[in-house]
Structures are given as structure tokens and as C-alpha cells.
Design a protein that fits this description.
This protein has about 350 residues and is mainly α. The protein is built from seven helices and no strands. The protein is rod-shaped and about 235 Å long. The two termini are about 135 Å apart. About 5% of the residues are buried. Keywords: Coiled coil. InterPro entries: CNTLN.
Length: about 350
Amino acid sequence: QQEKEDLQEKLKLREHLSQTAGKSEATPVPPKNIDLEMKQLQCKLKNSNNEITKQSTTIKSLKNEVQEKEERILELQAKISRLERDLNMKRHLIEDLRSRLKANQENEKTSNETLESLERKVKALAEDCSNKKTSIDSLKQRLNVATKEKSQYEQMYHKAKDELERKDLKLTNLESKMIETECAMTELETTASQQLHGLAKQSGQALETIQKKLLLTNDKVEEFMTFVKALTRELQHSVQELRTKIKQAKKKGEMRVCKKGLSQESVQLAASILNVSTTDLEDILEDDEETAKTKMEFEKDKEWLQYIYKLLEAQFPFASYLMDAILEKLNEKKKLVEEYSSLMKHTV
């Protein structure tokens, strides 16, 4: 622009000079130099005009670029302000989040402590549960064994009860038969005494008939003797069976009490140390007094049987003594039955 202004001033100056040259003819200037200079100046002017147009286009483009850049700057400034606002908001949010993080960290510490304590409690509860589970399993096994033993004892009790009822029935039948035989014997005694009184008066024929009747009565007496012996043997046998059952029940009860105190493993260990079986160990643990007691009871039964046989071989009257002896044994059997039933109730 400055060059343009300089050239324009020069052109004005030249025009002014040419005008002044036209006016003042007194001072002549050589026309060729002036034309040459004019041409050069015009060329320079054209060049400068071209340059000016170029510069103006570039200026316009630069102005447009500057405007665009200013608009871009405004947009960027607005964006920067928005970003600053966002940044401030984010700073506030970050501070809030930091405060929350601190609070959460503190909460996490407390929750971790509580979680650790809870984990310890859970472990303790799990161990307690496992211990209780093992104890429950062992108790279930014991219960199964106890139920099996109970069912076995119930079967044994029912069998013993049925057998006792049968034997009681048999005993009542035998008692009724004994009464019948006693009545028959008294009748026979009376008839024999009457017949003995009448024998003296009667003839030999009557004597023969009386002898026949006497033979018949002797046969009956012998039959009665065998019946009484069989009855006493059966009674003694039933009493001995009851005693053995009572001993077995007592032994099982004592062994159950012993097994409660001692575990099965300790019993097996003791048996393995003694190199015997568990049944042999149970037999070893039996009391010597019990065996002595059984021997005494066996001797008493033997003496009672011999006493019955002596009574049967003794002279008349022996029915009351025989009745007392049999009633004594029946009372003993009754007591044993009651003892056995009470033992079976306790075991069940």
C-alpha cells in the first residue's frame, strides 16, 4: 500500500510536471526521456496494481481466515468456558467422590472387620455343626442298635409270655387232674375200706373180684405216681428255664450298663489284649457269686424232687404234704414270672 501511494504521488508529480511542462514552454524537456520514464512508471504501476490486487485478495482471504479464526476462537472460548464449568463440576464431583471414597473406605474397614469376625464365627459354627453331625450320626447308629435290640427283646417277651400262658394252662389242667386223682384216691380208699369190711362176709368169689379191683386201683395209683413225677419234673424244668431267662435278662441289662460306661472299641480292645472273643469276655466278667447261686438253686431243686419222690413212696396220708410242696414250687414260679416280666419291661 505504501509503494502504491508512493507511485501514485510520483504519477501525480509527473502529471503535474507534464502540465507545468505544457504550460511553460520556455523550459523545454526532452520528450523521449519523459516517455520512457512514463512507460516505466506505467509498467511499475501495473505491476503494483497487480501486486495490490493480489495483496487485496490475500488480505480478503486473510480477513476471512481471521474472521473464521475469531469465530473459531469464540467457539473455543465458549467451549473452554463450558469445559471450565464441566471441570469445576467434575472437581466438585471428584471431591464429593473422594469424600465418599474415604467414607466408603472407612465403612469398608469396619465391614471387613465385621466380615472377618463373621467368618470366624462361621468357621466356629461350621466346626460345631460338623461335631454335632458326627454326634447325631453316632446317636442314630445307637438308636438303630437300640431299636433292633428292643424288637428282639419284644419278640422274646412275647414268646416267653405265650409259653408262660401255655404252661399256666397246663399247670391248671394238672392241678385239676391232681384234685380229681385225690378225689379218686379218697373214693378208692373209702371203697377199699368198705370192700375190706365186706370181704370177711363175702365169699371167695367176692374176694377175687375185690382183688381185681385192688389190682385196678394199684394200676391207677402207679399211673397217678407217674403223673405226679412228670408234673414235678415239668414244674422243675419250667422254673429252671425261668431262672436262666432271668439271668440272661440281668446279664444283658448289666452288659448294657457296662457298654454305656465303656465303648465298643474299649471292649474289643480288652478282648484283643486278653486274646479272647467279646462273648468270652462277657462270660469272664460274670460274677462267681452268680454261678454259686445257680449251683445252690440246682441243689435245692434236686432236694425238692427227692422230697416229692419220698412223699410218694411214704405211707398214707401224704396228700397234704405233697400239695404243700407243689404249691411252694408254684409260688416260686409265680415270683420268677413276675421278676422276669418286670425285667423285660425295664429292658424294653
